Amino acid sequence: xxxxxxxxxxxxxxxxxxxxxxxxxxxxxxxxxxxxRDEWLRLQMLDSLLAxxxxxxxxxxxxxxxxxxxxxxxxAPGPSSAVRR
Length: 85
Ligand SMILES: [Zn+2]
What we know:
The protein has a domain at 3-53. The protein is 58% helix and 0% strand. The protein has helices at residues 3-14, 20-32, 34-52, 79-83.
């Protein structure tokens, strides 16, 4: 895994949006990458700061509760039109 991917996974992990397999991959990367371990510590610190800040609105879990504006007019977003060539 690349450090870029690792850092994306870190933020996903803070949101609780990745599964155990991905966490395992992330842990594995961090075990061999000091930079990412460092970044993970920093992200966790930031996250706890944000969590304790009264003004912050927490986003919904993974933003996939069906309230996406893409579905509002009944048209499916991108992928399905790609299938129907
Ligand atoms: Zn790394």
